[in-house]
Write a structure and sequence with these properties.
The chain is α/β, with parallel strands linked by helices. The protein contains 15 helices and 13 strands. It has a single domain, classed as 3-Layer(aba) Sandwich (Alkaline Phosphatase, subunit A).
């Protein structure tokens, strides 16, 4: 794999001069931060994004109060590497967690794999990567933040990501995997978050909350009142269940926002929203359809991105493509912290940076890595959105039968017409730009 090479002097200069601290954050106490991360939800499946049936009144209201980017993207369409990208501000080929899990050992069936010593050792090695890169909780600790992990979390115990508090124990002997006890949040109430907020207020310290509930993720078992609401509106029961899950998730977001208001914290809290990856529900089963989760298409990687901070961020809609990699720099600059040199994103409230932004990148990998140390071995596709265009390049070593794809993504948002051969000048330029980003 080839990466751009910088001399130590140039690299140091870039680190020193490439960032701007928020003057606002320098003058005022750092804000509390609530980061809401939906789990397995299509970019279309909100009222404010135009869905004709699904009702998401609380997120609709949040969108009205926020800086809203309808053309947001996550770099990859699988939860573990996507979540690591959110918390580190790094694309998967840099933080190196590219799949959900390591290779499955041959001859070990089903869930017995989680007891296999070799498999466990590789899981531990994957978890080690999170300790080798900056993370939001570790950076925010420099400003005395208390940080809470809830919901999805693949990197063992919450402390490995730098959180001061958390729900996920990560012990494989107790079923620790992708969140364990943390997956109760939202589905079984929000008391751990409420208690953490109260403790932070008593300690007079700012807080960072990672709210990544197992919603609307399967199992699709919504409250009966919500399922009944959608049963006659959906074409099939599995679709009705998924739609109801989306509204259930919306209700939990509303409860959190209400709690901030009831405790006079709305004006002091930066709220951000993103989803980890997309989801298109199959018609007759609670499973994802093609061109959604784990795919290279917008059904798997597109998401609305929102940032709300009353009195500090003006609500508006901006159609510039943005990335979940932009969340970490945005949070850090509002906290008055320098952005670590490796982070590739921008502050979403920096108008000058937004005006220069026309491109976002990503890469899609195998669910179970072939080689946990070499991202190029696990790569399926690379993709890039630049202005109105999107290019997708398959990795011939893994996707030997695939062809390059080019879409006019604003006129063809569901990627129906491949223009790679018909618009060779655009295809050539975007292919070169994507190769310049990184080449396996």
């Amino acid at each position: 794999m080839k990466f751009p090479k910088l001399s130590k002097a140039i690299f140091s200069l870039a680190c020193l001069s490439g960032f701007s601290l928020s003057s606002l954050a320098a003058e005022e106490p750092p804000p509390n931060v609530l980061l809401i991360i939906s789990d397995d939800q299509s970019w279309t499946d909100y009222g404010f994004m135009g869905h004709p049936v699904i009702e998401t009144p609380r997120l609709d209201q949040l969108a009205k109060e926020s800086l809203l980017f309808p053309r947001g993207y996550v770099p990859t369409s699988l939860c573990n590497p996507s979540l690591v990208s959110i918390i580190t501000g790094l694309p998967p080929h840099q933080h190196k967690i590219t799949g959900n899990e390591p290779p499955r050992p041959k001859g070990v069936p089903g869930r017995k794999v989680f007891q296999d010593p070799g498999y466990r050792a590789e899981c531990e090695a994957m978890d080690d990567y999170i300790e080798k890169v900056p993370t939001l909780p570790r950076e925010l600790a420099k400003k005395n933040y208390r940080s809470l992990q809830t919901g999805k979390w693949w990197q063992g115990n919450y402390s490995r990501g730098g959180f001061t508090h958390g729900m996920t124990h990560g012990d494989p002997d107790r079923g620790g995997r992708h969140g364990d006890e943390g997956l109760k949040i939202g589905r079984e109430g929000l008391e751990p978050v409420y208690d953490f907020i109260e403790e932070s207020q008593k300690a007079e310290k700012p807080f960072f909350i990672w709210y990544a509930p197992f919603l609307p993720h399967t199992p699709h078992n919504p409250p009966e009142r919500l399922l009944n609401k959608y049963r006659d509106l959906a074409p099939t029961v599995p679709i009705a269940k998924y739609w109801a899950m989306c509204e259930w998730f919306d209700e939990t977001c509303g409860a959190l926002l209400d709690h901030l208001e009831e405790n006079n914290l709305t004006q002091d809290t930066l709220v951000l929203y993103v989803t980890d990856n997309g989801w298109i529900n199959q018609q007759n089963a609670s499973r994802y359809a093609p061109r959604s989760k784990r795919s290279q298409y917008d059904g798997g990687i597109r998401t609305p991105v929102m940032a709300r901070f009353p009195g500090k961020i003006d609500p508006q809609v901006i159609n510039t493509p943005v990335s979940s990699l932009d969340l970490a720099p945005t949070i850090l600059e509002f906290a008055g912290l320098s952005v670590p040199c490796g982070m590739k994103g921008i502050n979403l409230t920096d108008n000058e940076a937004l005006q220069k932004r026309d491109t976002v990148y990503g890469d899609i990998y195998l669910h179970n890595a072939i080689d946990i140390h070499d991202p190029s071995k696990n790569l399926k596709w690379r993709w890039m959105v630049q202005g109105d265009w999107k290019v997708i390049l398959p990795n011939p070593e893994v996707q030997a039968n695939d062809i390059p794809e080019l879409y006019h993504i604003t006129l063809d948002p569901y990627e129906k017409i491949n223009l790679y051969e018909k618009r060779p000048e655009v295809a050539k330029q975007l292919t070169q730009d994507l190769n310049d980003w990184w080449t396996p």
